[in-house]
């Protein structure tokens, strides 16, 4: 479903004319009904869909086959485990589907693109995406962005009122006109009226094409997670299928030679397949992720994409936002630097409160914001709040019936009749890096325009004679000290000036210096990440030198390392694009030859240079990524692009931000962590309720533990199947195999589950776990174990036949071959479980996993007990032959010594 393709002027035309009934019906046919139809399937349908899963079909086939071959206990155990798994899965799916299905009740309306809607004065939840054409709205977009700070939305410039300019004929675009768009599902807290006119909006998108619809679609149909582990797991399973095929053919050939009945041939040959390809493997692989997710929740880290946990174990680079992430959310006003007659005054700290009440500088501080009162409390951007509170002024809002209803709000000093009304707001744009307001002193006819924003941007829009000559030096001095600097500007408006020309030829008023302190945990966490050889990068919308200063203060850039700023200029006047290099701490130009000599250096660049290099020097950009540490003045889409480029050069990228302007990057990173106050921000796979970056190493540690658990469980399950495969293949040669050989192996179900309980290791180490199963160390450990197990079983099988007390008994299940292989394989299962219960450096040692230790110890004790002290009832149940054990001393049974050796030798494969 496409957007309504219109220009801004067309939207205003439709606002004036409205749609006819025929037009509405036609557009409803074309765009569809405005609903996000999330159908909640019945429990029966969910059950059928779940049972028809290939995994459960294979399990059902295995259970039927085992029952036919008298493997009753093992079959029952698998059935119980499958029923529990299906019930849990159905409960989760039903709960999620019901929650998402509630959205339909909220959004289902008859609106179509082009309809005109009136926004209620007491607020509403938007049922569609609509563009404001009159009035202003205060909205909460936390549902989409994870950012709980209210956002101001202004009306689209009206070309019929002379305020559209070039924007009037440009196509409407959701991203470019975001500050004029009310997104579906967001909460409109309050509206503001102009001269009694209602707040109106034109519908532009409905149904699944809305922002809310796209979000629901991404939840219902998430992007597949591409990770080498899962790819290699399928290859490994295909290898097991190949091994099973060999055993299948071998079993059939052997059965034909021994003239076995057809029914027996079918059962035994198919049994080889179900033994070799473990039906419980997918459930066992998932168990590690489930427990890791539970541990993350205990750490106040919430996850909406569990498959990402394993991927987080591979993260080797983390991008951090600055403000609110590395530094405190709140800003303290350190001082101001006013300008008069093109020159700076001395820095003032709070002196303006007494003698500058009626100055344009303080008027700009008091009016150039998007604050609003909600339930009598000022609410809005923390920077705006600090700036306004520092003036000592008060903010007065009004109702539609108020005599001042032609103003957005009125600002005034306390106990003063000096009042300024805000006529029009142009909220802050991260792309433009500034905001403006139009205001009027009550009692005067002329209006004033006030602007605040990034110093470089504001200065470029001011008259040159009003900008001090030492502007760059003063700005650099503050930013090097780590201050956040905001510039202010003012202009007296002429009567016939249009809205789109007010941000030009302004008078530079001066600078506001804000202090942004590091969070207490920042330096320690970054130190731990560096010790673990995890690279850290800063991606911020703040000033370049401020970002570099903060990077040095928090240890992201060591004191002795050099910072080189890359300045890129686009093609201009026939000249090609070029890059110049300069040192951040000195005015010297850095030549490319110096880059080759310097070993410890970091690149820094701003958003404009990043865009030029990405367009004109793409090969150079990939090289810069290897040493780029500070990326300043980055727009939201540039943050996302940076993440993608880092991924292109084979980094596993984590992203940590506070939710504002980081949504795209958080979604695109391998492990995006939002520090939002919400329990689970939809903008990010992970959300931390601890508002600092200590969640980053915790997530990586749990990811590594979960990844290692997946490897260990996979290898154990694979060896478990191979050991059983070897045992069954050997015993088929004597044509008698005990059903208890497989049935008693239900004891290993608990052993498998105990594997996943190992908690993460307490600190990050410099090495990383492998990302795939197909690697030399992993394959070597598995192949070594297979060869050891194969060798001991064949040796046992042949050795028992050479004993003087051996008698062939092909017609009795309780024969010597069966008994010997049974004991050897049981010890091999336990040995493999111990060998593959890897602990340090990614998980806690196995001896701290008391369920695992208790399970192994009890199984070892039981095996030794029934082997050295036979109990007839137990032996009969397990089909173990015990006749000669009572008539011969133990030293006559060399395979007992073999079992002891078997318990020691596999440790060599560690």
Describe this structure in words.
Residues 2-71 form the Cation-transporting P-type ATPase N-terminal domain. The chain crosses the membrane at residues 72-93, 233-257, 272-292, 705-726, 777-800, 820-837, 849-868. InterPro entries: ATPase_P-typ_cation-transptr_N, ATPase_P-typ_cyto_dom_N, ATPase_P-typ_P_site, ATPase_P-typ_TM_dom_sf, ATPase_P-typ_transduc_dom_A_sf, ATPase_P-type_domA, HAD-like_sf, HAD_sf. GO terms for molecular function: ATP binding; ATP hydrolysis activity; ATPase-coupled monoatomic cation transmembrane transporter activity; metal ion binding; P-type ion transporter activity; polyamine transmembrane transporter activity. The protein is of the alpha+beta class and 910 residues long. It folds into 5 domains: 2-37 and 105-220, Calcium-transporting ATPase, cytoplasmic transduction domain A; 43-99; 228-300 and 699-909, Calcium-transporting ATPase, transmembrane domain (Up-down Bundle), CATH 1.20.1110.10; 317-328 and 519-689, HAD superfamily/HAD-like (Rossmann fold), CATH 3.40.50.1000; 332-515, Calcium-transporting ATPase, cytoplasmic domain N (3-Layer(aba) Sandwich), CATH 3.40.1110. Helices cover 44% and strands 17% of the residues. The protein is built from 33 helices and 29 strands. The protein has a 10-stranded mixed sheet with strand order 9-29-28-27-10-22-26-25-23-24, sandwiched between helices. α9 (228-257) packs antiparallel against α10 and α9 (228-257) packs parallel to α26 (695-732).
